[in-house]
């Protein structure tokens, strides 16, 4: 099984990359039954989601070249660990935006959350958990 460790921030000077690499190291030391891969949102630039319908209700987005690499990457994974900072008492907009572009790719797959920041990133994790429950 392939587990994607999703870097939920694209800010310059972000701590997110170091936290995600630490999560990968811990996960790989814990089990050899799974393959872990870092998936950096910086590698999948997406415009602001402004579509007429959610990907849950249409497959039109699959035809758009800009969204295709992100959707294909997420579809190729069996589960996810989202590494998210807390920005302004919430999850980063880039992470929410990226999730708005997928639905079927994440549907019924397991996901975990590693958060950090003010109060341990609990507000970011809480918001992300609510969003992920839709999948």
Automatic annotation (TrEMBL):
Domain NADPH-dependent FMN reductase-like, chain residue ranges per copy: 1-134
Q: Which Pfam families would you find in this protein's record?
A: FMN_red
Q: Which domain of life is it from?
A: Bacteria
InterPro entries named in the record: Flavoprotein-like_sf, FMN_Rdtase-like_dom, NAD(P)H-dep_reductase
Where does the UniProt annotation place the signal sequence?
Answer: none
- Name the SUPFAM superfamilies for this protein: Flavoproteins
Write down the Gene3D superfamilies for this protein, in alphabetical order.
Answer: 3.40.50.360
In Swiss-Prot or TrEMBL terms, this protein is called NADPH-dependent FMN reductase-like domain-containing protein
């Amino acid at each position: 099984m392939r587990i994607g460790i999703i870097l939920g921030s694209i800010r310059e000077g972000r701590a997110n990359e170091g936290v995600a690499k630490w999560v990968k190291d811990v996960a790989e030391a814990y089990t050899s039954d799974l393959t872990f891969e870092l998936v950096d949102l910086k590698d999948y630039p997406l415009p602001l989601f402004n579509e007429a319908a959610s990907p849950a209700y249409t497959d039109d987005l699959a035809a758009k070249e800009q969204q295709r690499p992100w959707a294909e990457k997420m579809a190729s994974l069996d589960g996810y660990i989202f590494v998210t900072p807390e920005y302004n008492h919430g999850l980063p907009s880039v992470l929410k935006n990226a999730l708005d572009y997928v639905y079927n790719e994440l549907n019924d797959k397991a996901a975990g959350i590693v958060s950090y920041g003010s109060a341990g990133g609990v507000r970011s994790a809480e918001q992300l958990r609510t969003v992920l429950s839709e999948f």
